[in-house]
Structures are given as structure tokens and as C-alpha cells.
Amino acid sequence: MVTFLTDHLLSWIIAAPLAGLALVAWLRDEELIKRVSLASTLVSFLLSLVVWARFDHGREGMQFVERAEWMPTFNIQYAVGVDGISLPLLLLTTLLPPLCVLTSWNAIETKVKAFMMLILLVESAMIVVFTALDLFLFFMLWEVTMIPMYFMIVLWGGPQRVPAAVKFVLFSLTGSLLLLVAILGLYLEGGKTFDMIALSQVSYSVDTQFWIFLALFLAFAIKMPMLPFHTWLPEAHSEAPTAGSVILAGILLKMGGYGFLRLCLPLFPQASADFATFILWLSVAAILYGGYNALAQEDIKKMVAYSSISHMGFVTLGIFVFNTQGIHGAILQMFNHGITTGALFLIVGQLYDRTHSREINDYGGLHKLMPRFTTFLCIFSVASFGLPGTCSFIGEFLVLVGTSSRSYVMVLLAMGGIVLAASYMLWMLQRVALGPVTTRFASSLPDLTMREIVVLVPLAILVFAIGLYPGPLIHAMDATVTGLIQGFDAGPPLKTTAHF
Amino acid sequence: MWIALIPASPVIAFLVIALGGRWLGERSHLIGIVAVTTSFALSILATILVVTSGPIALPLYKLIQSGPLTVEIGLYADGFAMALLLLVSGVSAIVHVFSSRYMQGDPRYVRFFAVIALFTSAMLLLVLSANLMMLYMCWEVMGLCSYLLISHWAERRSACQAATKAYLVNAVADLGLGLGVILTWSTFDTLDIQTILSRAPEVVPKTVNVLSLVGLEWSVPVLFLISSLLFAGAVGKSAQFPLHVWLPFAMEAPTPVSALIHAATMVNAGVYLLVRLAPLYVLSPGAMVLVALTGGLTALFAGIVGLTQCDIKRILAYSTISQLGFMIMACGVGAFRAATFHLISHGALKAYLFLSTGSAVAAVMRTKSHHPAVPRSGPCSDAWPLYCGSFLLALLPSVFLFSAPFSALWTSTGQAPAAGLYLMLASAASFFAAYYLSRLVLETFQKPIPLVWKQALPASLARPRFFTASLILGFIPLVVGLAVLLAFLWTAFTHILVPGGVQRLPALDNLIRSAFDLEHLIMPLLVATAGWGLALTVHGRPWPRPSWVTAALDRLYVYFMNRGYIDEFYEVFVVRPTLRAARWVWISGDVMVIDGMYRAVATFSLALSRWLWQVVDVRGIDRGVVGFGTSSLTLARWLWRVIDVRGIDRAVTDLGASSFTTARWLWKVDVRGIERVAEEVGRQSDATGQRLARLEPRTLQHHILVVITWLVLGLTLFYWFAP
Asked: Distance (Å, rounded) from C-alpha A117 to C-alpha A239?
């Protein structure tokens, strides 16, 4: 019995939300539905903690691998596994949904059952995406994540929800189409198999690398989102309900970064190296561009959304410098961004629940009315712009150190992005929380309730825990990352300072 | 190991107050006081230990281990760190005691004590940092604490703006510090400060081409770059020109905070950094010149601005900037010990001045005035500590800066003109320092007390008396003790004051040897006394001068009273353009161009599909089909009408009729024609036959025979040879 449980840990993690989904579908009582959803997401989270505890930190390859034939005619398998790259993302993916369920407890008033089912479905699908070893499985669940998000936005979203949802779906579909093309190309070029590990053993010709990399790059760039493909994000994020924004910003965006690390780098080292300079400059541009846009926003959620673009720029920056610090930093940054931005969306959502306004100018002097809210807003704001001692700092610092092996100008510009982040966060804080009480909602702003605090506290603890002791996370990804970058000529060696 | 408790005990206090604040309420200060006093006591013990048995290194844990990058959190305590540790924990303990009364009744009492405890531990950790990265982290945490404390009275819009301004100005400066840390790592492969200092001489010849990105060549020594970048951080934190603008506004913080953070401790972090990395700086003459000039200019500029302000705290803020400029300049000319000495004595004295201002202001505060402006002065009873402190401070820069390492000003850079310039800058600044402090004291206490205050005084005197007592108890011994001890035991203390690395460098040996020398005191003392005396005698009294001088002086006065318009400059040329650029990027870039592009694609697809629907589908295919149908119908109808009814029917009818006619005609033809034709054919045949007979029939037969013969022959030959 115990071995059956431990041998199929990943499947259990995937199955827990699905089981919850089945149970919820059968239940009628709303209170019970919420509890079952919470319980199933928590089970999933606890099991992923078990995975972390049993994870062999010294091993480079996949662990907890499970394989089963699915469609043998096309060599399609149900194959899942975890390595140092997917482990942090697995933890993140199972960490946020319980908080989403909790924060939706009272915020979602209509069609509770459907909403919970969508959360559970999307959680399960995302876990598969981050653990799949079979490209077909990967692609299918990649597609599946889109559908619950669409319905979340369309059914529970803000006033502009329909165009936002349509935009989200159109962009995502374009990306998926390119991903499908790339995967079929890989299937044909790589010996009629969808097995990622087998595919990574094949060496591809330069032309194949170029074209498949290009298709993959576009697909992941839309998901990330990178600079010119980002316009779906501010609308989708700001119109989605709180839980939707959290899942979208906290987890779904990471699928892009994960795709780069899982497919682009190991399969197409040549094409990755060729595209690197372009992608690096694009990332730097995204960091500054997202920062400037965030500075101009009057809508808190849009501001956080634009800041996501800026932060995800650090992820691609770190990935495409092809060295240990950069990739460590990029993975950490994905994890940290999930925590800080997820938390910011949660806390902004809690404010939105009270007033149904996202305009910065509608608020002012909240420190007086909601001191606990202000404390948490302050914590997550400073964490978001990477104050040392908070989690984002470690990720950004590692990325910057990694980037310094390529160019100090990029480092300087990226640091400019951090200054911009400090500016828009503090300015927002100043306008929303500080100053004399000017908000017209003064009467409808009670301080945070116990449940809301329970949602925020774990994230606040993680912010400082990772900021002061990131060792365990870095250690977990170390072996895999070392293996990943072995095939790379990482540009000029790290120690020369003869370039700037 | 117990050394770790020095920074740890305020951290614990912070956690206890922050988490249990609701329960603690106005008892929070007790925990803070106990923790910081513990730190102070332990600092004394540690100092004794360090002085007797040398520096202590205490590695704690690995923060980051990523490839070749290792960041190890650890403490390093040497004499220099100890001196600062005593200052920080001492001032912090006194400020804690002072604030416990000063902040009474404040709605955010708990928050205040939590944050100053966190600040104290961050500063203590910074001083004890063994690692550049750890130093950077503490540096930023202090910045955050400063932000939180400046915005303590968050109802005031000006306080919030000042807080944001302070943080952002420092964030810009920290760009340099952060980049410097990264550059240090890639140069030295380590961030451990002691290792860096010992390896610094090896990297002197290394250069970096800073324009390699654009394909040009401009090589700069890497040490110069590192030093300048790190110095950029110091410029922000220690409020040096041109990034000094945040400090005067930081006076929005409660006065004890100004005493602790914006005068005595945090602003010293920049000077601390320079002194800590002294062995690195002395290897880069360019950076030294940069440091010295920045410091000198700041000292002079802030001194003059200090002359013209009329807010006690603001005068003190500019005085702080000016004194920090002194210290930075002293570092720049290589007089690191003088800088350290001035740092400690200035820290203690400035804290004292701020707290006396605080007790004066507290007395006035009850009468609803939040603005501690000079002309509306405080009660006379508080005059003497302020007097005393001011005078000490007025003399301080001149006495201590130019005492021992006075000769360093000439020798360190080896350039006589430059040394002269530094000397002039320093003398002028110390003259102004003496003048504005005397003016401050005069204007505050010389005038008769306005009636309003007199009425308000009896009720408010209770607390100031407590303050005065605490000040006297805490500071007079501290200040006097430090000053006397340091002044008379200068030569003995010099070995403690500067990190050991410096002593190993032969270049600095000359500077270190210089002892406390009375003859070097004469000129600076004269200058200071002149400023002092001028303020006492001339200030506020008209003196004979031509009108153009008055006009010029007025213009200068207005210029400096507006703080050189530097804030306005930033507002107009940095802040607003950035915000405008952000809006422009968003509206014109994101919404119009990028999103516009996608919208164009969408609009185009929509238009295309509509066109396809309308033109091709509706008009084309549909109409085609309909048209085809219609036309088929028409055709059918036409067929029916024309062909069937009219055509075929008529044709059949016609055919019938015509057949009949034909038949009749045929019969006629038959009878007449055929007979005639047959007759004719017969006749013609007959004629042909006769004509043929008349031709030579043999010729024809002959021809046919020849052809047949050849044919037979050819076939025979073909079959003969073919197989």
C-alpha cells in the first residue's frame, strides 16, 4: 500500500485535484464544495512536499518517473517525472491553488461549484505541464489550461471581461498552434517519438534547429509574455477574478519560462546560442518597458500586470546567458514572482472585494483604516521590487551576476528596471496607503479578516524565508542546471573583465 | 559566538514587537531598550576583546552557492567596526529611552519601536559585515527603515513624499553600489571584504573597455570603476552632492529618528564603506580625487545653504550634509583616521543636538505647531544644552579634521595645487559651519519668547525636563568622554580606528605616522572662531555696503535659501519627464503601437472575414448559387418557352410542315431530278470510259507492276536481313 502510494507520487499529486473535481461535481452544498476543493488542493500540496523531501538533490536526471502506454500507434505515452527545474515550479503550482480557493471563499458569489471545478481542473493540468515527459501530453494539457482560464475570466471577471477573455484565447491559441507545429516537427525530425528524453539525445541539423526553435520561441514568448507579445496580459490579468489573476500570473506565465528550459535549451543548443543576443536585448527592453508602463498605470491590477512583464524579463535574461547563476536566478525568479505577484493580486483582490474599484486614485490613506492591510501591502510591494532580504532580491541578483558575464550594460539597464520597480511600487503605496484619508469608500473598508490574513501569511513567510535562506531551493535545482549548461559555450568566460 | 548577539538582540526585539505589538502597546519600548542596551553592553565587551586579541571573524551560513558564486554571511569585527558599533548601539539606546517618552500617545507607537529596532540591527550588521553582499543587503534594509520612519506621520502628505523621495534617490545611487558589487565579484571571484582588500594590489593593472558595446576603445582601470561605483552608493546614503536632496526632507521623520538615522548612524554608512575599503581606494588615485572633490563641494555648498535656512531641523540637516562632506573629503585625501574620528564625534554630537531640538520642539508641539521653524523659538530653559552642543560642533570639524592628519592633505595626492584647493574648501566650509550653528542658537534663544509660548509653557514643561535630564545623563558623558578620550589618546586610538589592511600599505605609512599636533590646529581654529565671532557680532545688524553688493548678496541669499534650486531641477528634469515618458510609453507605445498592431490584425481579419462573407459569400457564391438557380430557372423557363413551346413545338410543327413540303418537293425532284441525273450520270460514265480507253492503258499497268515488284523485293530483303 505504502509503496503503491510512493511509487506513483506524481500521479497522486495530479489525481488529487481531479478527485476533488469529481467529488465537487457530485456535491450540492456550497460550503462543502469549498471545503472539498480546499482539502484536495492541500493534499496535492502536501504530496508535493513529500516529493521535495524525497528528492535526490545530487541527481541530474528525472526522478519519480512514471510511464504508461497511451496511444502506442503514435508512440504516445503518459510519462511524468520531476527534476531540478520542474521541482520548484511543481511546488509553486501546488502552493497557490489552496490560497486561491481560500480567497474565493466569499468573493465568488455565483456559480461557486463551477468556479471551484475550474480551479481544480486548471491546477491538475498545470501540474501535468510541469511534469510531463511526453511532448504530446505536454501539449494537450498546455491547451487544457487555457479553457478554465477563459471561463474564469468570462464568467466571473470585471466589466471588460469578454474582450479580455477573447484576446487571451486568441493569443494563447496562436501560441499553441506554433507549439503544435514545433512538436510535430520534432516528432518527424526526432525519430517518431514524443518522448522528451529521447528527443534530447538527438542532434538536429542547423536548419531544423532554427525553424523549430523559432516556433517554440514564439509560442513560449507569447505565454511568458515577452515584449511585443504581451498585450493580452494586462487586460486578462486586470479583468480576471482574484483567483484567476493569481493562477494566471503566479503559475501560467511560468509555463513559458519552463518551456525554454525544458525544450529550447536542451534540444536546440545551437539555435539557442544563435538567438541568445537577440533574446537578451529583448528581455532588457521588456524589463524597462514593463517598468515604464507600470509607472503610468492608474489601475492597480494593471500596474501589477505590467510589473509582471518586467519581472519575466529577468527570467528570459537569466535563461539565455547560459550560466549557472543566470539559470538559478531565472528559476528562482519564476518561483519568487509567483509568490510576490500572486500575493499582490491576492491583496489587491481583497481590496477590490470591498469596494469594486481598482483605480489608484479612488484610494488614499488606507493606513488609517486598514493598518494590517497596509502592512501586508508594504511587505509584498517591497518584495516585488526586490528589496534585499526578500525573495526577489536573490533571484534578481543571481540573474544580474549571470548577465555580467555577457554585458555590464545589460546589467545596468536591468538594474534601472529595478529602480523603476521601486518607483512605481512606492508611488502606488504612497497614493493608496499613505497620506490623509481621502478615499470615498472610507465607510466600507474594514481591516483584513482572519481568513484573508491566513491567505497572506504563508506567502509573507516565504518572501522572507527565501530571501534570507534560499539555499534549499538553489540546492534542489543545482545538479540539473549544471547538467543543462554543460553543452553551452557560455559566451566569454565569466572571469574576464575585458569587456563591458 | 556571542558577538552574533550584538545584531541579533535588536532583531529579536523587532520580531517580538512586530508580532506581539498589539498586546504590548505602549510597553513596546521596554523590549527595545533592553535589547539595544544588551547590544551596547556586548559591544563594550567585544571592544575589549578585539583591542586585546585582534580581529574576530565569525562565519554564519552560506546565503548563496551558485556555481562559482558563493556568498557567505559572516561577521567580522575589528577595531574600526567596534568604534562604530559603540556609537550605533550607544546612540540607539539613548534614542530608545528618549523616544519612549517623546512618542507617548502616538497612534503608531508600536510600529515606531519595531522599526527602530530593525534599523539598529541592520546598522550593526552592516558594520560587522564580512561580506560585500551582506553589507549591501543591510544597506538596503536601512533604506527601507528610513522610508518607514520618514513616513511615520503618514497623514502628512509631505512626509509621504519625503519618504518616497528618500528611498528613490537612494535607489538610484544604489544602482552604482549594486553594479560595483557585481563588478567586484567578477574581478575578485569573491565578495569577502578582507580577501578583496588583500588581493586589491594584484588587480591594479587590470583595465576594462567600457565602450566595447559600441565598438569603441576606452579602457579604464577596473579598480577605478569599482571604487567609483561603490562610491556612488555612498554618495546616496551619505547625502553627498548631487544626491543630497533627500536628507533635508527626511526631517519629516520624528525628531528622535532624525537623531538616530539621519544624523548619527545611517548617513555614516557611506563613510563607513569608504573607510572599510580604504586599501582599495588608495590604489585608485582617480577615484580618490573624485571622492575628495565630491566631499569638498558638498561641505561648502551645504554649509552655505545651512546659513540661509530657517527651520531648526533643516539647518541641522544641512549641517549634517556638510559634515559628511568633510568626512568624505578626508577619505578622499587619504585621511581615513580623521574621517573615522570625525564620524564618531559628529555622530554623538549631532544626535545630541537633534535630541535637544526634539525636546525644545516637543514643548512647542502642544501648541499645534508642527513646524519647528527658527523664529518661533522654544523655551529658554532648554537653551544651554543646545548652546553647548552647537559650540562644540562648530569647533569640531576644524579641530578634529585638521588636527592629526593635517599634513595628509598635502602629502596624499602629491599635488600641491589640489591640496591647496582642498584646504580652501575645507576652511571655507568650517567657517560657514561655525557661522550657521551660532546663528541657529542665537536666533532660537536670544529673542524674547512670544506670548503664545509663554502661556503654553507651564503645561508642557514636564516632558522637556525629562528629556533634558536624559540628554544630560546620556550624552554629556558620552560626548565629553569620547571627545576627551579620543583627543588625548589620539595616537593610541589610531591603530584601532582604521581597518588593518591600510597599515600594510607602504603608501599610507606617512599618513599614519602623523600624530596629534597642536601647531596644525591654529589655522582651522582661527577660521572657526572667525565664523563664530562674526555670527555673534555682525549677524542681523546692517553694515555699510554699496547697493550693488546688497543686490548681489540678496540674489545669492535667495539662491541658497532655495537650496540651489536642485530639488526643482530634479523635479523638472528627472521626475516629471520620467512620469511623462512612462505615460507616453504606455499610451503611444503600448496601447497605440503594439496593441494597435494586434488590434489592426484583428480588425483586418474581421474586415477580411466580413468581406469574405459579404463579397465572396453573399455576393459571390450565394449570389452565384442564387444566380445560378435563377438563371437555371430562367433558362428552364426560356427553354420551356423558347425551345420547348416555341422552338421544339414550333419546330416539330414546322418540321411536320416542312417534311410535308419536302416530301412533296422530293417527290417532284424524284420524278424530274433523279431521272434527269441518272440519265446524266450514265452519259458521263460512258464519256469517261471512252476517254480512259483513249489514254494509254499500258502505261498505267506498267506503273502498277513496277510498284508491286519493288514492294515484293523490299519485303523479301527485309525479312531476309531482319531476323
From this structure: 20
State the DSSP code for A390. B
Q: How many residues does chain B have?
A: 723
Where along chain B do its domains lie? 165-210+218-561
Rg of chain B taking only CA atoms, in angstroms: 50
Is the ipTM value over 0.95, yes or no? Answer: no
Q: How far apart are CA A89 and CA A334, in angstroms?
A: 8
Q: Please report where in the chains the cell 589592511 appears, as a residue.
A: B501
In chain A, which stretches have pLDDT less than 70? 1-2, 489-500
Q: A87 — alpha (psi -120 to 50), left (phi > 0) or beta?
A: alpha
Smallest Cα–Cα separation from A329: which of A236, A396, A421?
A396
Tally of residues, chain A = 500
Phi, psi of B446 (to 5 degrees): -80, -35
How far is B203 from chain A, CA to nearest CA, in Å?
Answer: 11
CA distances from A361 to A190, A245, A297, A429, B189 (A): 56, 21, 11, 11, 48
Asked if B138 contacts B28 with a C-beta cutoff of 8 angstroms, the reply is no
- DSSP-based three-state secondary structure for A195: strand
Q: How far apart are the first and last CA of chain B?
A: 117
Provide the shortest C-alpha distance from residue B582 to chain A (in Å): 5
DSSP classification of residue A263: I
The pLDDT tens digits of the residues spanning B659-669 come to 778 777 777 76
> Which residues in chain B (531-590) have CB-CB distances under 8 A to chain A?
578-579, 581-583, 585-587, 589-590
Q: Flag if A423 and B168 touch (Cβ within 8 Å).
A: yes
Of A289, A436, A471, the CB nearest to B157: A436
Q: Residues 32-91, chain B: which have Cβ within 8 Å of A?
A: 61-69
How many CA atoms are closer than 13 Å to the CA of B494, on its beta-carbon side? 22
Asked if the Cβ–Cβ distance from A408 to B172 is below 8 Å, we say: no
Contact assignment for A296 to B182 by CB distance below 8 Å: no
Which of B579, B587, B597 has the CB atom closest to A295's CB atom? Answer: B579
Q: At what angle do helices B269-276 and B109-128 cross, to 10 degrees?
A: 10
Distances (CA, A) of B195 to A32, B185, B280: 62, 11, 11
C-alpha cell at B252: 519629516
What gap in Å lies between CA B129 and CA B3, rounded to an integer?
12
Nearest C-alpha in B relative to A428 = B164
User: What's the rounded Cα separation, in Å, for the pair B231 and B280?
Assistant: 12
**pLDDT tens across B181-240, in order?**
998 988 888 888 888 888 888 887 787 777 777 777 777 888 888 999 999 999 999 888
Sign of CA dihedral B128, B133, B135, B140: negative
For residue B520, the number of C-alpha atoms closer than 13 Å in the C-beta half-sphere is 18
Higher pLDDT, B515 or B208: B208
The pTM (predicted TM-score) of the whole model is: 0.83
Three-state secondary structure string covering B359-373: HHHHHHHCCCCCCCE
For A138, other C-beta atoms within 10 Å of its C-beta total: 25
The type of residue at B139 is W
